[in-house]
Amino acid sequence: MDTPDVTVVGSGPNGMAAAVTMARAGLSVHVVERAATIGGGARTTEATLPGYRHDRGSAVHPMALASGFFQKFDLVDRIDLVTPELSYAHPLDSGRAGLAWHDLERTARGLGVDGGAWRSLFAPLVDRVQEVAQFSGSSILQVPRHPLTVALFGLRVLEQGSAAWNLRFRGLEAPALLAGVNAHSIKPMPTLSTAAAGLVLATHGHARGWPVPVGGSQAIIDAMALDLIDHDGRITTGVDVTHVDELPRSRAIIFDTSARAMSRIAASRLPDRYRSRLARFTYGNGVAKVDFALSAPVPWTNEHVRDAGTVHVGGDRAEIAAGEADVAAGRHPSSSYVLVSQPSSFDPSRAPEGKHVLWAYTHVPRGSTRDMTEAVTAQIERFAPGFRDTILASHQSSAMGMQEYNPNYIGGDIAAGDASIGQLIARPVVSRDPWRTPAAGIYLCSSSSPPGPGVHGLAGYYAARSALRAEFGLTPPRLGKN
Fold this sequence. Notes:
Structural class: alpha/beta
Strand content: 15-25%
Number of strands: 16
Low-confidence stretches: none
């Protein structure tokens, strides 16, 4: 086997971002992937019936427009993205719903008594969205370039991450909307980490929207793969790396794996003290996923919900908080929070004409083996009577099934590490350059490193940038299409 300058282990969004950056710098790059196809958490396959294309990981991509890496890479010029006018919706009983439009003012008008409170919460962040993206998409230990924006954001995190989180609102829709987006973090609420994650996502929903990639999430990966190959990079699939000595002696080896997997594979090169620190890095609770092939769109009781790119299902704020507390305590909740998207509403190529695909996941304790198909179906049926009658087929993955699909999802943890405030500081260890390990030429670029979970490519870009400087004495290259 030839010895490339750089070997990247794993072809998820971060691994491909690292590979593209290194290849653009003029280095020889080889990506090795365990699965038969590339993509990791952004893979699209026919999981239910022929002709129905399902996203196996993320389906909707707020960071496709917000990520500094994707902005530099000109992703919007390489793939087609459809941005729904209704970023996300939150159905409630009796046909009511909270509606978070791309347009902040339209959202505020629809929230009635809480419209002003919603506007005052988000307007300063939406006005400074690029600065929000900059500090939220970097290591928490970096000195902020925009301290006023950080302060405005921090005050809102303290409010929404504490017992004061209900003081701002008087109705049901606004707090439910925020609880639904906070729950993406798979943590009990209110906490600072859930509030921070929710505020960032909701800000992007109003500022740039939450786009759906035409052709599925795989389109993002394929765009990076094409660029890598155009710059003489190589990709090999079906290679399960179990020991670092199975890889060529590249000057840089970049792991798009969990911190635990990197520690195991590179054990012979990593100092014992560093491996002990990695062993203290903990993993969070999991998701169970259900994909549906449908004969018709989901018949949401509230017709506006039918226009949403993302739907948060689970009742009001108190009900969602109770369910997330159950998961944190190791219990399967009696009322599940379900994150839902019907991408075929915006991209007809995902299903045969007139038919639809539905993407859904729910939160469960880590290591769960429970099939959550009925729980997910029942919760959607609660707010969309007749949903069962539209189901042609389904495919489920328990939390352990998610780990089997992708070993980086330890116990079903799609974030590759608990996203607590402590572990956003120590991700996976406390360091000003957390992507670089003490071992010569060994780097980590997965969601186990900053800025953490999400399809953004930033961890890969930062790891590549660190390796370019330390191993090759190079500066980051241009990444744009032209």
